[in-house]
Amino acid sequence: MWKEGSLKVNGGIFHYYIKVYEVGSEWGIDGGKVSKLMMRRDGKIVCNYDRGWDIQPSDPDTQLAFEILMHSENY
Hints:
Blueprint: E1 2-9, E2 12-20, E3 34-41, E4 44-50, E5 53-55, H1 60-74
Antiparallel strand pairs: 1-2, 2-3, 3-4, 4-5
C-alpha cells in the first residue's frame, strides 16, 4: 500500500511517499515492511530507498524523520 504524508522535525517539513507491505521481506528496509521510501525537504530529495539505498539520510533532522517513519511503518 502506498502512503503519503508530511512530518515536521525541528522546523523543517519532510514530505514522504512510502510503500508498505503487510509483512517484512528481503527487499524491505532492514528486512521490514517498507520497500520504497522517498522524503523531500524544500523540494529536494533527502532520502530515497527503492529496494536498496539510493540516498541515505545524511543530516540529523533527516535521520530523525526517517527513524520516526521506521518506528511507525517498518516493524
